[in-house]
Amino acid sequence: MKNELRAYRDEEDMSQADLAEGVGVSRQTINAIERERYDPSLELAFELAAYFDCRIEDLFDPEVDEI
Amino acid sequence: MADTGKAGWLARRRRYRRGAFGILAAGIAGFVIGISIDYPVVGVGIYWAGFVGFFAVERWSPVELFDERDCALERRASYDALRLTGAALVVLAPGASVLEETGRYEIPRAVEGAFLGYVVLFAVFGITYLVRRYRP
Fold first, then answer.
1. Would you say A8 and A52 are in contact if contact means Cβ atoms under 8 Å apart?
2. Which residue in B2, B67, B70 is closest to A53 by CB distance?
3. What's the pLDDT score for residue B104?
């Protein structure tokens, strides 16, 4: 899933490990999300949004086609 | 920015994971050494203890040893393994049986055992699937 995680992380000047530490997952998981190789659970998506104090839609773009 | 209060979580996770896998490796090494020095019962005991220790650390460690992506990878790998073994069973088992019935090939006992193992694996899968479906 497309996401702005890296941009938000860069804005806060933090490493993947810092973010992983903050939301309780491994650094590899953060890396996989940023590289769009892993779609996080709803729980983790909410946690990430809360961490960056933004909405989930600001972080993740599901690329759902308009009907 | 939210303070999730998880400082040092990664380092603790790394420590506990190393400990858990170290216990597991020690159990396997104990088994190999026990067999090689003619103490098979002791070896098996150490082997079992290694697995019990691994799962004990996993169950009671204060941090999660495996995060959601680890679990997702495990589920995906299990699914792929079942598909691969299923395809092998569907293609090979009836073919081998037909060849044996027509006298063109005799299935070695080891291969028969492997087929039986596959059948048991899928039977267990079917049962656990039904259990999960009706008692999630």
1. yes
2. B2
3. 85
